[in-house]
Design goal:
Number of domains: 2
Helix content: 25-40%
Largest sheet: 8 strands, mixed
Structural class: alpha+beta
Number of strands: 17
Distance between the termini: 50 Å
Strand content: 15-25%
Shape: globular
Radius of gyration: 26 Å
Number of helices: 18
Length: 563
Amino acid sequence: MTSNLLRDRKFNLVEANLDNAEGIPVYTALSYTWGDRNEDVTIFIDDHPLKISENLAYALDDVVDKAVERSRYLWIDQICINQQDRAERSNQVRYMGYIYEKATAVFVWLGKSGEDHDVAINFLGSWENPAEDYGRPSEGVLLSVVRQMSQETLLWGEIIQWASKERNWNAMNKLTERLWWDRAWVVQEATGPAPTYCICGESWISFPDLIQRLIVVESITKLPGYAYNKLSGRRAFCLLMVLDLRTHQQLRLLDALQFLRSSCCTDPRDKIYAVFGLVNQEKEIIVPDYTRPLNQVYKDVVRYCIAEYPPHHRLDFLGYVSGSIEMATKENWPSFVPNWTESPIFDNLKKTTQEYQITDRLYRASLDFTGNISIEGDILSVDAFDVDAVSYVGETCATEDDTDAVLESWKPEDPTARYPTGKTTQEAYLHTLVCDVYRTPNFGLQRGTHFQAELLNGDANSTDEFLNAHHMRTSMGNTVLCRRIFRTKNGYMGMGPAAMQIGDEIWGFLGGQMLYVIRAIQKDEPQLLYRFVGECYVEGMMDGQALRYRDDGSVQSQVINIQ
């Protein structure tokens, strides 16, 4: 299209060899969203016409002068990479992390001015407190917020007064709903070591300050007595977590992929390629290649976990399998491979005492035993042990609104009856509702607890009461949403995926922390062939109780194959 945008601007293209650090010019990198390509704008580079998206044209119009103040050069993917050449894209994607890390600055362009964005950015930018004052998000922004709120600091009074005005709160919501937040690539572009600034029209703010303060403001919607609509802050929180974990060198591939699972990208391979450069690879397992089939690219994630994760976390990828087994079969998708194009329908069960750190294990279903884990074609082979079979499945808890009714339907018919471990069925039921795990006040996780409804029914007048209620609600919600309670032929009770059904089998895999629901395809020797349904919790079976031993002390197991 013909446009007055950038009509007086002249651009030149400069080539640089990334292998020669001294020869790379000082440059600013741009992070933005491409927008609709139906309204392209023509610019001139070295006097040659080049069509770019209208959104990029608006971004350039806003940031060029600001970038020139810092450096003569801008790096922009739409211009600097030939998007029509798959080979070039595959090659250049390998350097994306390096390009943004080495920039003198990264400019995040959130979009055109409007919708009172300046009201929100200018308010957030007016805080005197640096982002670090609120603690690491992995240790709980909410904890810090509640503690500071309880001290009735001047800042909190200002936040509450500001947010009480409908125009201000709407402006904050509009800021968090901008399309930039949904891009998969922003996790690599905006969370690196280069100074990063958010720009919207003429308004600026440091990116770490923006996302931290958005989460702080959003946290007041969780406090008792503050009746605000929730902000659309989930994506900001994910970026804050990646920034924190990347800064402390604790970012794991599976966590990064889960944070990005609801993000958008034109090519679904980019769900992987957008984050692969953020994690270490001793062996080059994940290599960008846009010619490979999608399920093979996603299978590389499984190969990476088997090769790179610690011995008792190599099967953690199974906790991210989402969706129905029937859909996986229909699409010829290996049932053990997480499909990262699907938005998460549940929170994966936590497996360490500190989230996002592989320091220990919450569950030890296979104790310290490890076994063969290998992939051949579309078959995952594991050393496994048979545990039980499913004889009953309860209703699925599909949404938060369903929780009370579903929990009522799950209650045991005779709460005083004896459970196989000796406790009552009511006690087993309460432990199953939280998978025996509780989130502690310092945001750690510990075993040996049960659901305590009384914590949710208090007035939460104190900070401790509020936090205890919040942690119990979170522990239960993480467990039951999009899952269902089940019982086994041997009288055990557990929590499993919505896709499970009567007749499914419960197995343990050597090296796995959890127990697993699988469905037989072929049970004739010599090959046992199954479909993977999902990981599960079985009350009284999560610490090696299902293992059986040979006379020499070795554990009894057999190889099963999962397709």
